[in-house]
Description:
By secondary structure, this protein is α/β, with parallel strands linked by helices.
Amino acid sequence: MKSSIGKKELALIDAYWRAANYLSVGQIYLYDNPLLKKLLTRAHIKPRLLGHWGTTPGLNFIYVHLNRVITEQDLNMIYIAGPGHGGPGLVANAYLEGTYSEVYPNISQDERGMKRLFKQFSFPGGIPSHVAPETPGSIHEGGELGYSLSHAYGAVFDNPDLIAACVVGDGEAETGPLATSWHSNKFLNPLTDGVVLPILHLNGYKIANPTVLARISHDELESLLVGYGYIPYFVEGHDPQKMHRLMAVTLDAVIRDIQRIKAATRRVGVKKRPLWPMIVLRTPKGWTGPKQMT
Length: 294
């Protein structure tokens, strides 16, 4: 797999990702002092924390990489986030892009607006800890696990130019509705429908336990996903610099696969059901967070 992406663009992607991560962790933890201009004290920390940092850096990582291919290739694509309480990531990206401030001018792109952004998250009179309807562009309520893939497929039926990139958490993958939704590809017509790009995010754990799909072998997982009717591409690691390049290369290859299938269908019609690509993203839980708290 090859990609034309250069070091400068990868550095910009990493900078955007780190900014989204900061905005996300600020929403979860900070009540005040949004730019950390003062020494951090207990008074700046929210007394009750909601929103999961564990899943958030992965959601932010996927978001910025999808933005790159959307921009470069002028794709018609939506992002559906399945992992529960991943709201700080999606809100952070909407704020970083400027969309959030356009919809909510009081959440301005300055220190005062950032303080309001952080304080309102999962706070009385504020916003929920998941991607609720008040999040700009939201069509999927990420707090109810198991429905992300079915929502993604529902979005692309009779919408032939749309790609729905759907992030499935590995805890979410153990729910009944999600386990059944893998088979929705059997109903997809590549000529008249759009495409769902599942991204299975394996970070190893749900709230209290290890997850099943993160614990089986690579070969067993690959066989399972092929049996569901997908061609899985694996993006695995913990070094952000290596992962940025690997994700960029993989997404370019996946988009080429999708375009090849669609072009062949337009040329010769639907001869048989295609095997659609998907991505398995394996990263640490709470990626980039401190290993120890003092």
